[in-house]
Write a structure and sequence with these properties.
Layout: H1 2-25, E1 28-29, E2 32-33, E3 41-46, H2 52-67, E4 71-76, H3 81-93, E5 98-101, H4 109-117, E6 121-125, E7 137-141, H5 143-157, E8 169-173, H6 181-199, E9 203-205, H7 216-222, H8 229-241, E10 251-253, H9 257-268, E11 279-280, H10 287-294, E12 301-303, H11 306-321, E13 333-334, E14 352-356, E15 359-361, H12 368-371, H13 377-382
Parallel strand pairs: 3-4, 3-5, 5-6, 6-7, 7-14, 8-9, 8-10, 10-11
Antiparallel strand pairs: 1-2, 12-15, 13-14
Helix pairs in contact: 2-11, 3-4, 5-6, 8-9
Length: 386
């Protein structure tokens, strides 16, 4: 009798859960409903919390999924690929029907293979998952254009069009993490703008100079493992006391805001740059860097509205879960349609890469990310951005 009652209670609990999930799955959102997906679980695997944007991305992805009637489980890998793989395994065990993965390195491929085995779709989020043929979708910004905007920022900040080889400008180069496929596109985009000036002698490179990211040996010398600011700061300090000791740097190609601030911090401690800092690029429109742009310390950043990226990821996920044959994402273009098919190359296959457009931010428009709602009121107050 007791066994019968236990079974009955279990069936009742399952039925209640299914009813609740059905109600949740029928909720609506801006322009999309998920009734057919029935409140399925979407697993969100973000890489780490060192870079603030990933915390924001995770929160935005979860909110967008829940707004559309899905359940969402958010995990952060804390910079540890083994941990992230375990988290992905747990999400699969929990019954996730789709994964959105912002990976740390290509070690995530084994977890993606597990997802494919379970017939769970994967969206590579803002970082392509290399060495995998087990997924079909990649969503990011036009990262080659991000680099172009950084190069154009340096071009404008140094007025390179009016500069001459007789009075050259001096630049040193930094790149992002070599485990992040985007770092290569950022760098190559920037160098597509800067290389002509270097070749004409108008711009001289202090330190290693990989003409493109294909110069693997030199690219590794300027790369910043894990996007860690302490690594960038130490390298900058070594440059200032070494290769750049007898010149004054006019610019630094920095691939993101976290590294830009670390580089600027190193420069501020050098008496040579007390009155005039180099032109320093950036990316991510972090509040602390917007404050530096406002105050003239950092020259520019690139605004990638990750709230829009998160929304686009869940719009894409919604279509995949509903079985749409050729998903489309409003405001995004397929990389293959604009000659950038390589952005979707995992080394094992070409996946569908959806690209959103980045925006250049300088002192002239530093408020734009605030107007877009990208910066929180707390960040505005903490960084003096009123």
């Amino acid at each position: 009798m007791k066994k019968f009652l236990a079974v009955l209670l279990a069936l009742f609990a399952v039925g209640s859960f299914a009813f609740a999930a059905g109600r949740q799955g029928g909720s609506s959102s801006s322009g999309s409903t998920s009734t057919s997906a029935g409140g399925a679980l979407i697993g969100l695997a973000m890489p780490e919390t060192t870079v603030l944007r990933w915390v924001k991305d995770g929160a935005s992805l979860k909110a967008e999924a829940e707004k559309r009637g899905y359940r969402a489980e958010l995990q952060f890998g804390n910079g540890d690929q083994t941990l992230q793989n375990q988290q992905i395994g747990n999400l699969l065990t929990q019954g996730a029907k789709l994964l959105v993965v912002g990976q740390l390195n290509d070690g995530v491929a084994s977890a993606v293979a597990d997802a494919a085995r379970d017939k769970v779709a994967v969206i590579a989020y803002d970082r392509i998952i290399q060495n995998s043929a087990d997924y079909d979708y990649y969503l990011t910004f036009n990262n080659f254009k991000v680099g172009q905007l950084q190069g154009q920022g340096i071009e404008a900040g140094l007025n390179l069009k009016a500069a001459t080889a007789a009075s050259p400008k001096y630049i040193t180069l930094f790149a992002g993490s070599p485990t992040d496929g985007n770092a290569f596109f950022f760098y190559d985009g920037a160098m597509s703008v800067l290389n002509p000036y270097i070749k004409s002698g108008v711009l001289q490179v202090v330190g290693p100079y990989p003409e493109t990211s294909k110069d693997t040996a030199n690219f590794q010398r300027i790369a910043t493992e894990g996007w860690l600011p302490n690594i960038a700061k130490t390298r900058m300090e070594n440059l200032l006391s070494g290769d750049a000791r007898n010149v004054t740097l006019d610019a630094v190609l920095a691939p993101n805001d976290t590294l830009a601030r670390a580089i600027i911090e190193a420069c501020v401690a050098d008496a040579k740059y007390v009155n005039k800092l180099p032109v320093v690029s950036g990316q991510d429109a972090e509040a602390a860097s917007l404050a530096m742009i406002k105050n003239g310390q950092q020259y520019m950043t690139v605004f990638k509205d990750t709230a829009k990226l998160a929304e686009a990821a869940i719009i894409l996920a919604d279509q995949i879960l509903k079985g749409v044959a050729n998903p489309t994402v409003p405001g995004a273009v397929l990389a293959s349609s604009i000659g950038l098919e390589a952005i979707g190359d995992t080394g094992r296959k070409i996946v569908k890469a959806y690209l959103l457009d980045p925006v250049n931010i300088t002192q002239a428009n530093w408020r734009d990310p605030i107007t877009a709602g990208f910066i929180t009121p707390e960040e505005i107050a903490a960084n003096g951005l009123q």
